[in-house]
Amino acid sequence: MAQWEDVLGALVQVRGRALVRYATLLTGDERAAEDLVQDALVRCFGQGRPLREVAAAEAYVRRTVLTIFLDGRRRTVRWDGLRHLLARDETTADHEPAVTIRVDVHSALATLRPRLRACVVLRFYDDLTVPEIARRLDLSDGTVKRYLSDAIAQLETVLGPLPDAHDEDVHLIANGGTR
């Protein structure tokens, strides 16, 4: 048995409960803490790292527990901030209106010239600003504003008034402002 395997066995045997208590203080949940310690042990010893003494290994595992916990919290906070953007109202029994709207939008986009379509997609799908679109397409800001204005006007002839576009972007475009 390699020396790091002896260290892992001794660490789990002697300091395992202390590591779980430490993780419990971080997570507030003993089961989540056990999973966190397990993840940290796998990350620390999974590739046969040369940890040769229990005290150094414990410090390394504690640091890894903290890192995994903080990364998980960052992901959770980030996900909580984005989840509403991806969540759909699942109580709708009839999906036909949403499908019809999506098909209409795709059809309307298909009527646009490629540059106009690119500007619309970058603006409303990728949520880029006018200067960012201009840099991506190697155009001037004024040209991007004109393309967006023309595209919105053309889309409105097919789809009807676009309230979101008019409330914010059309006024910005018309007034020469950027977002």
From TrEMBL:
Report if keyword Kinase is assigned.
Answer: no
Domain named RNA polymerase sigma-70 region: which ranges? 12-76
Classification via CDD domains: Sigma70_r4 (cd06171)
| InterPro entries assigned | RNA_pol_sigma-70-like (IPR039425), RNA_pol_sigma-70_dom (IPR014284), RNA_pol_sigma70_r2 (IPR007627), RNA_pol_sigma70_r4_t2 (IPR013249), RNA_pol_sigma_r2 (IPR013325), RNA_pol_sigma_r3/r4-like (IPR013324), WH-like_DNA-bd_sf (IPR036388)
Q: Tell me if Zinc is a UniProt keyword of this record.
A: no
For this record, an example GO cellular component is: DNA-directed RNA polymerase complex
**What SUPFAM superfamilies does the record point to?**
Sigma2 domain of RNA polymerase sigma factors, Sigma3 and sigma4 domains of RNA polymerase sigma factors
Superkingdom: Bacteria
Which biological processes are named by the entry's GO terms?
DNA-templated transcription initiation
GO molecular-function annotation terms?
A: DNA binding; sigma factor activity
Keywords attached to this Swiss-Prot or TrEMBL record, sorted alphabetically, are: DNA-binding, DNA-directed RNA polymerase, Sigma factor, Transcription, Transcription regulation
What family name appears in the similarity comment? Belongs to the sigma-70 factor family. ECF subfamily.
By what name is this protein known?
Answer: DNA-directed RNA polymerase sigma-70 factor
Gene field: rpoE_9
